[in-house]
Amino acid sequence: MRLVLENVVLQRQSWSLVASGVFTPGTHLVSGDVGSGKSTLALEMAGLQVPDSGTVTREGIQTALLSFQFPEFHVTGFSVAEECASWGLEPEDVLQRAGIAVQEDTPVLSLSRGELKRLHLACVLSREYDLLLLDEPFSSLDCPGKEEICRQLNARTRGITILFTHEQSIFPQIDHIWEIAGGFLGDCDEMPGALTRWQHAPPLIKRLLKTGKVPENITPEGIQEAACRTRE
Fold first, then answer.
1. What are the angstrom distances between the C-alpha of 18 and each of 15, 161, 177?
2. Which of 4, 6, 27, 186 could make a disulfide contact with 57, Cβ separation 3.0–4.6 Å?
3. DSSP 52
4. Residue 35, CB half-sphere, CA atoms under 13 Å: how many?
5. 9 contacts: CB under 8 Å, gap ≥ 6
């Protein structure tokens, strides 16, 4: 199972992005500044846009889903129950996974942005996909919400998961880091070696690297373990 980008060029009036790379099973992080092209690249990978040149090839991928940054883009039901049913899921199960205390007959668009995001991601992560693309999955979530999403992402045992985010605080277990800089998608490599090449690494990780302590991963637990090592 692979997603292959070969000399993909995305061009706008004053903006361009060039991307090549091979994405294999595991969890990939694509980082970059706001406006660098993460969302556009996600659309190309999902097959919802055609690149100006180059190819996007899916090998062994039968099912795919792109989760947009704004959860209201996905809403198709009037009530919470109808929205869950549109995914083929039981509302009780989804609400428990989402961790929000609302009634099943609550109008889904009356939820706060954070509640709606948690409901949407609970629906997404209740199902398995060969290719799961998540555009800014942590936006609108508080710290407990981010931590819960990370736990659910860590529970995925198959397929290719790609996170497009400029998050700087809380991450799930990451296998491979990529970043967009200067109009190019760069391959930072697999973890943990990728951390030394990651220009957009959070300040705390950069400080740890300066001490010569490389976290095994960028989960809160991985960073804490590396930080404790600096005091030995």
1. 11, 21, 17
2. 4
3. S
4. 2
5. 16, 17, 18, 51, 52, 53, 54
**What does the pLDDT look like over 147-162, one tens digit per residue?**
999 999 999 989 999 9
| Residue 110: DSSP 8-state | G
Q: Is the CB of residue 180 less than 8 Å from the CB of residue 38?
A: yes
- Residue 167: C-alpha distances to residues 32, 110, 189, 229 (Å): 9, 26, 19, 24
Q: Where are the alpha helices (DSSP H) in the chain?
A: 38-46, 80-86, 91-98, 113-124, 143-154, 203-210, 220-229
Dist. CA 169–CA 150, nearest whole Å: 12
Q: How far apart are CA 135 and CA 166, in angstroms?
A: 10
Encoded tokens for 29 = 């992080």
pTM for the predicted model, two decimal places: 0.94
Q: How far is CA 196 from the centre of its chain?
A: 21
Q: What is the pLDDT of residues 100-149, one digit of tens each?
A: 999 999 999 999 999 999 999 999 999 999 999 999 999 999 999 999 99
Q: Write out the two tokens for 165.
A: 């985010």
